[in-house]
Amino acid sequence: MSDLLTGLKQHSVVVADTGDFAAMRKYQPRDATTNPSLLLKAATMPEYASVVDRAVRDAKQEAPTTSAVLGLTMDKLAVAFGVEILRIVPNRVSTEVDARLSFDTKASVAKARALIAQYQAAGIPRERVLVKLASTWEGIEAARLLKADGIHCNLTLLFSFAQAVACAEAGVQLISPFVGRILDWHKKATGTAAYPPAQDPGVVSVTRIYNYFKKFGFKTEVMGASFRNREEILELAGCDLLTISPALLEELQANPGTVARKLDPAAAAAVPLERVAMDERVFRWLHNEDAMATEKLADGIRQFAADSLKLEQALAPRLA
After folding, report:
1. 106 tagged catalytic
2. Could you give the CA distance from residue 280 to residue 255 in angstroms, rounded to a whole number?
């Protein structure tokens, strides 16, 4: 009998949710994704000191002004980790735009173009990079504009159905609904200690999004993210992609068993759903009506921004 990770890979593309190169080599995911929290952790590990040092050195040489060195170092570091990751995974890496730009479409577009230019200078084609943006209205609009440049995006911090539909309507390449953070909110709000896997609020949310996209023919890929337990993952077998932490990858690999497909395009076609006419007014109202999504999006942006600031502070001594 094979293990659960092998079985899962028969139904969904497995993505490593980590900046740890060793974990990627061990679990052999097709893609990898990082965020400011993961980069902060990786950048402070001794084994990656050479990657950090190279990013600092290159930024000092290329920055047009002294004040621009820190920002360029952050970009260089994100791309440097991305390039190293792409030497391990065969397909794509996701690299995040600074969360502090989440409400600025123009700045997000400029930052995304700058990151892609750095990847191309390193010999990486843009098809192998997904630019991560927060799923604010401004972030979704940035992704729509970037698509016209042939730059593909991964819309992250996605919690509401409104966010998902707006992304699909904008032609976004991929979305990352945060399963575990949805569960966290509902457990706290309702006092429920645990949910059966099929009734897990995060699982229910992703299932609805997946069925809607497949039923109405949207090409946007759905990648479940931020899992709290293996049961959530297995309940979403068949989702286009699933990004999983090393700890849960280890658990799946260590446990024998078969994995049944739970999400399927043919089944989605039969689900009774109505198409939503989405625009900015509808998006803002529907998202606002979802207390969980409103709170978790704001909280997620604050957390990623805080980790970006911590990373800047950790790099500061190297820039002196």
Report:
1. no
2. 45
